[in-house]
Amino acid sequence: MRHLQIKQSPEAKAKLESYPKTIQPKLKKLRSLILETAIESETIDQLEETLKWGELSYLTKKGSTIRMDWKPASPDQYALYFKCTSKLVPTFKELYADSLTYEKNRAILFALEEELPVQPLKTCIRLALTYHTVKHLPLLGVGMPDQA
To answer: How far apart are CA 82 and CA 121, in angstroms?
Structure first.
């Protein structure tokens, strides 16, 4: 397994621990998927975990920011957020129309009781973490050699 340098801000750690106890395991599972996906990628050697707009955020040099959050206004769901002007969520909708639930072009939504669809999510996360290297490719390179 490759080494991934993770830079976690104290604010990010505190934010993760500030969620209700019933929500923390859900967000920690999403966080684990982000870290696993970054480790498995040959092109990512650094990942920054910080806060943006008060939400846990993950950044790489050649990627688009991924944010995740749970909000008291929607207590039965949590989400992964992506830059709404990118091709990310429209591409996810083409690839996984029936597997994931979306909020416009900005987020993948999860019901609290739902099991995470790990493989589709890891693909979506990988595409976001490497976005600037694949944004010019059809379907962001999914299905192309070395991009599956």
So the answer is: 13
- 34-38, 97-101, 120-124: the lowest-pLDDT one: 97-101
Q: What does the domain layout of the chain look like in residue ranges? A: 15-133
Nearest residue to 34 via CA among 8, 11, 54, 52: 8
Query: Which tokens is 14 given?
Result: 């505190």
| Cβ atoms 113, 120 nearer than 8 A | no
Can you tell me which residue has the tokens 């976001």? 128
Fold of the domain built from segment(s) 15-133: Aspartate Aminotransferase, domain 1 (3.90.1150)
Quick one: how far is CA 45 from the chain centroid?
A: 17
Under a CB-based contact definition with an 8 Å cutoff, are residues 24 and 64 in contact?
Answer: no
Asked if the model's pLDDT at residue 3 lies above 90, the reply is no
Sheet holding 107-111, edge to edge: 5-8, 46-52, 55-59, 66-70, 77-81, 107-111, 101-103
Burial 77-103, CB ≥16 within 10 A → b, else e: bbbbbbbeebbbbebbeebbeeebebe
